[in-house]
Write a structure and sequence with these properties.
The structure is a homodimer. The first copy, chain A, has about 290 residues and is an alpha/beta fold. Chain A has one domain: Metallo-beta-lactamase, Chain A (4-Layer Sandwich), CATH 3.60.15.10. In chain A, strand 10, helix 4 and strand 11 form a beta-alpha-beta unit. Chains A, B: This is persulfide dioxygenase. Chains A, B: It is found in: Mitochondrion. Chains A, B: It is an enzyme of class 1 (oxidoreductase).
Chain lengths: ~290, ~290
């Protein structure tokens, strides 16, 4: 399957958005108000357009994120890092909230669980899978640094944050006045709360991870909220400022960081040999189409 | 131990707040700005004063909530439903964020885990334990419906929501313009996301729970965010409007609700015989002081 190259856009041109390929309907102020008053529009930041939900899969301690633009009459939604085992939960929530799932996205090729993106595509006609071109995976959209992923007039920008894997990206909400404030960064395994992803396989590199986080994440405004792909200690969110100050690995200098990463002595991930090949094809070894 | 009765205040008088018993310092606009830009002030709602964190304890699937007022120079903070096993995590986070823990609160006497409030009191001099008078528990502050629990100029109001236990309360952020919007309701086990607490022991009553939720929670603005004491399916937040529409138990009429609750056939909670007696004394069978 080819990525849909005509959707590629240069870095940050205004008003050229993926979702604009779908027909746009006029936005009624009344319908926005009614909708957001019913479902609680913004538990995450101060945009009344954004509906945001953080969802947890216990076995792999994975966070899946649901973002939707409730100011658009279609209520376009995207899922970041869905897990195969919780696809029904996620799609049921999307149905209950009256959202239209547009994108099922991954931050990278996971080694600890099977992505739900392929399964979602079999259940939601029209939903597109998204992953970075650098990941070497198949997906409907192969994104690159600087791309925008838009849902209505909200968007995520794509930042390359390799180091845990060669194809890791961080999705960051826009920096324009009509986008959520504070900004939100979905960091995958590049930056975890008080931690980071391991760098000892899948094209990992501790030097590259350090540079990715410092150049692409720690340069964001300090109040930017950090939403990682996992947490093992029960934390749900952090911020750039908090991680710059308190991250026990990434607050160190590069040499110390490399030493820490070389001495983690982590076990081989239990499901890696099954998960990585599956995740290279959206979690489906024999996808119906892709 | 006696509750501190002189802190009792009638329903919602302005400017008479628990925390005002501590010396107030002038609030500098610069210090607010600096602080919130460092730590990400508001992942939950649109108040720049509120720092909010949702924390998870995996074994009992319990949510602990940290709320702090970062516009006050003391950065007063409170914890709702801390768990004994994760007290060190919570206090470490509070230290890292430069907050001052004022209250360690429970929504009710838990049957499935041991509260962390007693342990917190041994580790944080000056922190006060809080629970409802109707719970029959010991604590520093025995609160009643209509009380305000203030931290700086932010406050929670206390609503009685018995039915899971006789002493259950819901804490709700204030409804004044300077309070977080949308409002946030910490519902304990009275209202769970797409569920509710069981009503077959600890003075439980399905009729009473139904009336509590319908009169005290479902009457809040529909965008009020619901933060329960537990979730077993990986949901983190809901809203009043969403639960009115989609809660498979509480969206039914009273008779159907009672039938559902009578036929749950739930197992006896594993740790109840240990947890309830401990939780009646802040989680400490032999508390140093209380």
């Amino acid at each position: 399957m080819q990525s849909i190259r005509f959707l590629r856009i240069p870095r940050f041109p205004p008003n050229v958005l993926f979702f604009h390929l779908l027909p746009l309907k006029p936005i009624s102020k009344i319908s926005i108000k009614n909708f957001s008053s019913q479902i609680g529009s913004s538990p995450s930041s101060s945009s009344s357009k954004l509906l945001f939900r953080q969802l947890f899969e216990k076995e792999s301690s994975t966070y899946t994120y649901l973002l939707a633009n409730v100011s658009h009459p279609d209520k376009p939604a995207l899922l970041i890092d869905p897990v195969d085992k919780t696809v029904d939960r996620d799609l049921n929530l999307i149905r209950e909230l009256g959202l239209k799932l547009v994108y099922a996205m991954n931050t990278h090729v996971h080694a600890d669980h099977i992505t739900g993106t392929g399964l979602i595509k079999t259940k939601v006609p029209g939903a597109k899978s998204v992953i970075s071109r650098a990941s070497g995976s198949k997906a409907d959209l192969l994104i690159e640094p600087g791309d925008r992923i838009s849902f209505g007039d909200l968007f995520l920008e794509v930042r390359a944050t390799p180091g845990h894997t060669a194809g890791c990206v961080t999705y960051v909400t826009g920096d324009e006045p009509d986008q959520p404030h504070p900004r939100m960064a979905f960091t995958g395994d590049a930056l975890l709360i008080r931690g980071c992803g391991r760098t000892d396989f899948q094209g990992g590199s501790s030097k590259q991870l350090y540079e990715s986080v410092h150049s692409q994440i720690f340069t964001l405004p300090k109040d930017t909220l950090i939403y990682p792909a996992h947490d093992y200690a029960g934390f749900s969110v952090s911020s750039v400022g908090e991680e710059i100050e308190n991250n026990p690995r990434l607050s160190k200098d590069l040499e110390e960081f490399k030493k820490i990463m070389e001495n983690l002595n982590l076990a081989y991930p239990k499901v890696m040999d099954m998960a990585v090949p599956a995740n290279l094809v959206c979690g489906l070894q024999h996808p119906a189409s892709s």
